[in-house]
Amino acid sequence: MTKLRLFALLLALVPALGLAAGPGPALEHSGTDLSDKASLQRGAGLYMNYCASCHALSMHRYSRIASDLDLPPELVEQHLMPSHAKIGENIHTGINAGDGDAWLGKAPPDLSLTSRARLGGPDYIYSYLKGFYIDEARPMGWNNTVFPGASMPNVLWELQGIQRPVYDQGADGQSHLTRLELASPGRLSPQEFDRVARDISAFLQYVAEPAALKRESVGVWVILFLVFFTFIAYLLKLEFWRDVH
Ligand code: HEC
Questions:
Q1: C-alpha 169: how far from chain center
Q2: How far is the centre of ligand 1, averaged over its atoms, from the C-alpha of 99 (Å)?
Q3: Residues of the chain predicted below pLDDT 70
Q4: Are 167 and 132 a contacting pair, CB within 8 Å?
Q5: In angstroms, rounded to a whole number, what is the distance separating the alpha carbons of residues 242 and 41?
Q6: What pTM does this model have?
Q7: Taking a C-beta distance cutoff of 8 angstroms, is the pair 34, 213 a contact?
Q8: Residue 204's pLDDT is what?
Q9: What is the CA(108)–ligand 1 centre distance, in A?
Q10: CATH architecture of 27-209
């Protein structure tokens, strides 16, 4: 490829990059940490309790969760799986797409890859879980700042409490939703609820790319190998050039 064509190709990619960084709802930083096994374990428990009844993770197996998150298979069988499921099975949900459509107005999507598919990744899920507020105009009584008009009810409201929108008048004379305030507190403090949202986001981040757990530990060895190899290459160079003056 000539340099000119390469340059043209790179130039053609620029708008795509611009789009990827395009405007969207402001997301909160989730602070997920894939090396924090305890957080991933808590996230798995919360997910199976509060989300798995509607959302499948069909690209992931229960057994993989057990081995990746250092959980004994018996514990996963007893606490994280529906009684009819087998540990080697993929994570399906009881609700089928037709029922989801009929009951909720929208079938709950499979979340296997959501953390990778959405801009912001775990920050998107974190902000979404924190972004529910009451809105009588919506069929379920809930709306969401990150995903306006979402058909999902706030399944974590007992933990979080109920948030109400606060509107301010903008420069254009229209009223804008500027923030959410806690109208009635839940079982958890806001800090504790942030941790719940962070743990679930971390779990879904891991599910979307299980190899990321391994990659970070392999990375260190790759760097060490490269440093070592550079040293060998340097010795080799000294050897080759020894007789050349
Ligand atoms: C009662 C069923 C139900 C439960 C339980 C539920 N959801 Fe949902 N969820 C939905 C529906 C329906 C949608 C689709 C919303 C839409 O497209 O309007 C959705 C959408 C989502 C999305 C947005 C997906 C996207 O493509 O942007 C995420 C993320 C999500 N749910 C996460 C969760 C998490 C995490 C939990 C557990 C804390 C959970 N959901 C529990 C029904 C549910």
A1: 33
A2: 14
A3: 1-2, 4, 6-25
A4: no
A5: 58
A6: 0.84
A7: yes
A8: 98
A9: 6
A10: Orthogonal Bundle (1.10)
50 close to ligand 1 (CB < 6 Angstrom): yes
Give me the residue label for tokens 């109400």: 164
Q: What was the pLDDT predicted at 24?
A: 60
Q: Which residue has the tokens 């530990």?
A: 217
Phi and psi torsions of 168, nearest 5°: -125, 155
Ligand-binding annotation for 54, yes or no, is yes
Residue 208 Cβ contacting ligand 1 at under 6 Å: no
CB-CB contact of 79 with 184 (8 Å): no
What whole-number distance in Å separates Cα of residue 205 and Cα of residue 62? Answer: 16
Q: Find the Cα–Cα–Cα–Cα dihedral 33, 38, 39, 45, rounded to 10°.
A: 150
How far apart are the CA of 47 and the centre of ligand 1, in A?
A: 11
Which residue type sits at 124?
Y
Structural tokens at position 1: 């490829």
For the chain, how many residues are written? 245
Residue among 181, 132, 135, 125 at smallest CA distance from 154: 132
What's the confidence (pLDDT) of residue 182?
A: 96
The CA distance from 58 to 89, in Å, is 9
The Cα–Cα gap between 120 and 208 comes to: 13
Paired tokens of 210: 């299980």
